[in-house]
Write the structure tokens for this entry.
Amino acid sequence: MKNQYQRFRLKYQLLLIVIIVFLVPTLFFSIVLLNNYAQSQMEQSIKSAQSALEKSAAQVEQNAQACVLTTQSFLNNQGLTAALQKFVLEENTNALELLDFKLTEVTANDRLINNNPYLYQARIYMDSDRITEIMPLLYNRRRMQRQPWYQKERSLMEGWHFNYSDRLFDSESWNNEQHLASLVSCCYSFDGMYLGILEVSTRMDLLFPTLFQNDKETWNGFLTTDGRLYYNTGDVPWEPETTSILSQLDANRAEPQHSIQKTEKGTYILCYYPLSGLPGGLVTASRLDEKMQGIKTTQNLLVTGIVLLGICFCLFISKLIDMVLKRFYRVVSAIESIQSENLSVEIPETGNDEIGILASSIRRMTERIQVLVSESVQRERLIKDSEIRALQNQINTHFIYNVLESIKMMAEIDEKYDISDAVTSLGKLLRYSMKWSSPLVTVGDELEYIRNYISLMRLRYDYSIFLTIEIPKELLDQHIPKMSLQPIIENAIYHGIEGLPEDATIKIQGYRCQVDNEDAFRIEITDSGRGMTTEQLTALQDRIDGRSPDNPSSSHGIGLKNVQDRITLFFGASYRLQVAAEKDRYTQVSITVPFCEN
């Protein structure tokens, strides 16, 4: 990490410190703030859903109270109880008694039902089939047995029953009401004698108004203590999974509940509110997708704003750093000119601080280099006619290796290890180039040559060229044409990297593939240089493939075409060279050759 940091220019090192010290904490606190905002919006949505559910529960309890009060009025009616007891005890009831019952109790029942819009019917079922029915109040046992809530045991019938159809009459022409809810009670005389069953019913949509008010954002239901869920099964835009509701809510708990559920259909706020007058409570599920999308949009806008402000802040700090390092960059510019072999550059006076001392040292070094160069030129002029001609006539490979070895030893004696390493790389490079015993070499030998070549090329530039090799071991012993990678590397340096004001990277990657259903492997060489436009890439690929005439005025692409021709010559037309590039991003050259099992 430290070495990577030191590779940056001083300006970017200082800028990175500013980013770490100021921008990272700012971004952290912004994320915390956005999370708090999202959490507060979620809590507000939960409170809104709970408040709406509480209001609905109050209305339901008020509607249920109408059935409870009606039941109590019937059970406490002394005249009605006495008449019912007389019907039970006396098998034969005269017409005058029946007429009196109809004029008093039935008329009172009709008045009660008509004056209370929340009631559907109030009926009494006698536990006998011989009782004379007086509609719409008094019915016999056969009528009671048709109702869905009927059970042989009285205790099982008592209580609330929900969402059933009125089956009092079998005739299809009779418009029996659907979706009823009723409170069923046993009728007893004041001395404890069982008289019959009292049914006070209402419609589900009157008892639970919200069950029929579903929309695309809200779903409502009624959950009983025994785990039954009632809801509108008609035109419902959407329904959450009932199993998810039942697994998350407990209708036996006497306090409100809420949770957030995520399903394949979306994200919901699930709320439960218990009802004191009914065996269960109301449930509601509110869709959060739209609200969450709004929260996410707000977060994205805020993050975008923070990022833009951070970029502006970095640019401002960069300008300040440029002003502070202006004198330093003057010295750096002079050093770059010297590296470009311009020894006549004038190094400005920059003061007596550390930068001034550096400038003075570089100025003295430049003057010394100029003297050495002048002496070297004079020496070269003296030996030009003799030594160079002798070398041209007598040079051979062994002589070159011996001379390079001597230079290496001299450099090591003078502790010039950089020169020694460079001479070693040059010797290996020359030895590989002059040894041409076979037109094919292994990938490992070719990569070793590339390493030496890159090592020498680094001496020419004031920036670093990093070489990354990712080749599987199984490919190192495979054969490729000799000197097939070097032209690609050279092309990457001269046409892609040279002239860039920063360090560059060349990556060599290899992997196995298939060509015409045969085993092959591919080597990709990618540089982080200036890349090419689409038009330049097309023109270069056409020249490599021989689809365009050679341009004598341009040497770009000649080396790549030679590599292409040699690959095709050795392995056939199916194996070739391909180029991919993106302007100001990268250039990638790949070659594909057959894979041979060892």
Observations:
- The two ends are 41 Å apart (CA to CA).
- The longest strand covers residues 504-515.
